[in-house]
Amino acid sequence: MDRRDRPDEWRHKESAIVTCGRMLREGLNEDWLATATLVPIPSSKRRDDAEYDDRLPRMLQELGRERQLDIRELVVMTRNVQQSHLAGERVSIPELIESMGIDEGHADPEPQSIGIFDDVLTTGRHFKAVQAVLRQRFPDIPVVGVFVVRRVPPALL
After folding, report:
1. 16 FRET partner, CA 20 to 30 A, in 9, 40, 65, 143?
2. In this predicted model, what pLDDT tens digit does every residue of 87-121 receive, in sequence order?
3. Is the alpha carbon torsion for 65, 70, 72, 75 positive or negative?
4. Domains of the chain
5. Which run of H or E residues covers position 103?
6. Where do the H-state alpha helices sit in the chain?
């Protein structure tokens, strides 16, 4: 993952992962968490790529600290795509869907409900693609999105 060679930036990223996980732990309904399968939006890179970004799975691990939650990387990248913040033209939803698949090793038991987690919501493309992949595999399971939005207002920069 990028930034590990830049300790000052990496320290802030690590802190944000822990902070977001704790905020989610404090803000989400305990009853829902006890029955839902929590699924991170996959990185734009395959898990075996050196630039694979594990911040969302780690954020969910922080959310689940000292709890028994069902956290699974059900949707994975089958091929790398250009990172949205680096792309001139963003990858389309159909292209994203084509580059994703279900990790069948994590598909059992079938979820009762699914919460898709992302830390940035810009256009909603990744959410819609992951939602479509999950609905194709689990057509009768309710799917919702949970998004953490953090930004520094321009006046504070």
Report:
1. 143
2. 567 789 999 999 999 999 999 999 999 999 998 77
3. negative
4. 7-150 (3.40.50)
5. none
6. 7-27, 30-35, 55-63, 93-98, 125-137
